[in-house]
Amino acid sequence: MRNGTTSAETQIISNIRTTARPTGGYSMRMSNLSSTGGGFINGCRASAAATSKPCYRANNLSTGRAFELSSRSGAVVGTITAGAGGDTKKPLTTNATGVATGFNADRVDGLHAAEIIAAARTKAGLDADTLDGVDSSGFLQYGGTIPSGTTIRGIVGGRFQNGPNVNAGMGATASFPIPAPVPLANANVEVAPSANCTGSTTNVIAAPGFVCVYPSIIVQATAITANVGVAGTTTLGFQMEWNATVANSQSSVRALWAYTAP
According to the model, what pLDDT value does residue 197 have? Predict the structure, then answer.
């Protein structure tokens, strides 16, 4: 009927069981023996309104499949065309969240798999050779020595009880976190200000190859000096010394220090 006068559904209701034969088991079968013609076409003019019915609906009222598409030897089973296509068109929707066996997602967020991998490998600012922009060679390494040109800093000193003698000698030692690359001599350990120690307690610096001591707190103390502190290995730290100025009282010197590896 093409005149649009039909006002009721056409129903074909059967009770045909499935069979093992190539045919049988369907209420209706349509076949076209032509090599260029189709077997079935269905058209409608349903709008996008929520109350509109689809042009085609397969509804299984039991637990089996609702539809099956099969192509015996074709390379493409079918196509889904939505107008001119584009990102605003959806080929289908589903509320099922299980894995669709055999489906192959070619893109995620518009990217092919190779593009996703490439983007992950080239994230801006990621560089395994640096940390906060500092090359790995700029960090102190366990078992090594202080890298050339690197400056390390710390605090040395303390507060000690003097005995009955004025000008009694006192001292405190400081250790480097890892050894210096070359041994220190007494001439390489200076108390600021000096030619090789031109900084301050707020700008603790040292010329390459030198330890610079910057006294910060001095209580009942005088004649502050510094040296390697030991007669053996002199790559591990240094010593600061001073004289207590008051007998039977506490004497204190606390200083900041810096060492720059040559």
Answer: 97
195 in any annotated domain: yes
- Whether the full predicted model's pTM is greater than 0.90, yes or no, is no
Q: pLDDT tens digit string along 234-252?
A: 999 999 999 999 999 999 9
**Is 130 part of any domain?**
no
229 domain-assigned: yes
Domain count, the chain: 1
Buried b / exposed e across 184-214, counting CB within 10 Å, b at 16+? Answer: beeebbbbbeeebbebeeeebbbbebbbbbb
**CA 34-39-40 angle, 5° bins:** 150
Range of 198's domain? 151-260
The angle at the Cα of 214, spanning 211 to 217, to the nearest 5 degrees, equals 145
Q: Which position has the token pair 């349903």?
A: 46
Structure tokens belonging to residue 216: 């910060």
The answer to whether residue 144 sits within a structural domain is: no
- For 236, the token pair is 């591990």
Residues 6+ apart with CB under 8 A from 137: 147
